[in-house]
Request: fold
Amino acid sequence: MKIRVFTDKKISNENEILLSAEETKYLKIMRVKANEKLELFGADNYANAEFLQFNNNLAKLKILDKCLYKKNKTQLTAIQCITEFHKPELIAQKFTELGIDEIVFVESDKSKKINAVKKLRIMRAVIEGIRQCRRYSQPALVFANLKEYLLNIISNSKKNDHNNNIFVLSPDAKFLNLDNIGCYDNVYFIIGPESGFSNDEYAFFKNNNFSEFSINKNILRAETSAIAAAAIFGLLASKF
Reply:
């Protein structure tokens, strides 16, 4: 497997590109050699590239050919309430490995708060997830407030006539038949924090006809729930 490196820019028609200091450091650790072939991932496309040299302490690559990211018929969005300690980084990495198209970390009534350090760690976890797996797409990464994000989804669905379905993981819900998720343009699934959702949030879900579901008869840890749900939705979506 080729070494994978990243840029936060769209890979344009230019023949050469300079990487960031952080990505340059990674290539030095990997002991990259002149003319070695790499895979370069950008904002919405990727390219096969060739390492040329270190130019003013930044890695210089030659773009060989560009490709668009591969997209699933059904777009999967994981909405994860911020959890404690380093769990968000683990969850972000596993979401990436399992093929989630959009990863949304949100603040809810009972969740932890998002700060700049946490955002940076989550972004790095996503990059490490792509480095270690064979997916050829980079998930969109969003940080938001839970209700504000959901209201935006509802509003856009009405405007653009999208066929969406929103699921909420709840330990008290019934097991749902999820075999038809490939019929939807977009599928969203929401995972709560360690202390669960508030009564106000459950009322919001019910008023907007979100589908509550359960994946196990036992009460699962937040990170276990997130990874298990992503694996289930990812497997079902891949069938279409």
User: Anything to note?
Assistant: The radius of gyration is 20 Å. Residues 18 and 56 are 10 Å apart (CA to CA). DSSP finds six helices and eleven strands in the chain. The chain has a mean pLDDT of 90.
